[in-house]
User: Fold this.
Amino acid sequence: ALPLEGPRAESAESGRRIGGMYTISRCALLWAATLARVSGRGSRGRRHLSTDRLASESFPDDFYWRQLTPGKDVALDPSNSLAQVATSMGNFYYAIGDKNTGEAFVIDACWVVNDIVSTVENDNMTVVAALATHYHYDHIGAEAKNFGTGNTRIPGIFELSTEFGLPVHVPELELGLAAKQTGLDESALTPLSEVECLHVGRFKLTFLHTPGHSPGSTVIRVTGESGDAPERSGVDLLIAGDTVFPGSCGRLDLPGSDPYVMYDSLQRLSSLPDSLPVYPGHGYGGSETTIGREKASGYLSPGITRGQWNAHMAR
Assistant:
């Protein structure tokens, strides 16, 4: 098991310029029915979000935000077998940026990277870096994956690096795994860790290591300082990868998964503000939730003790 490290102090003031474009500073799929069994509540089953206001409806005017869905926003070619698989996987791909600088990051861009980059460019933004929440093939691609019809290459960070010339940032503990899986040289990857933060325009990305679904799984918090003008109001959101879904968490039966460490990661996330919007890596149960909702009826519930969790996982 990987021990969870405590929060580290970050220095957002010191930074270095990468490529002249942005700064880097030192600074088992489980569902709600299972939660009901562990916490003693009645079963709610697999739930969908309420129709209350989405955080994205109140983002400031200068914040660029896309939650891209295969089969809806990208991967629309019915003759493309990879697009069909991508749609069935239900991944979300994210693009965030600063409209004033025209620069954007893509997060977990995979399967149809040309579509993803083109979509961002059609919004008059330039992709300047690619980030990954964890190394699984449906988030970063793979040199060869067999879907029953022979080995198929899944586009992802390899193409983003070699064809688009983008810096690629991957969780520090998964650099070797990501390189081996995609065929990229490890030297082409930049580690993400809790002592790093990235900036795109006025918006800052910080990282929290949340192992469990995978050894290096990382959630990304995006913040932006408020200004005097309304269009420069603050931003605060969490891109959770496969650590948290609405009403559940990521699979814990995969190689490198650790259900016991996942408990620590979920408890750590429960200390974040209740109002913080959370955007998952797949559309399992909804496209958005909040820390508070997951504490009330999800896997961030303070009513789940370590003993209850461990006893359930030992079954």
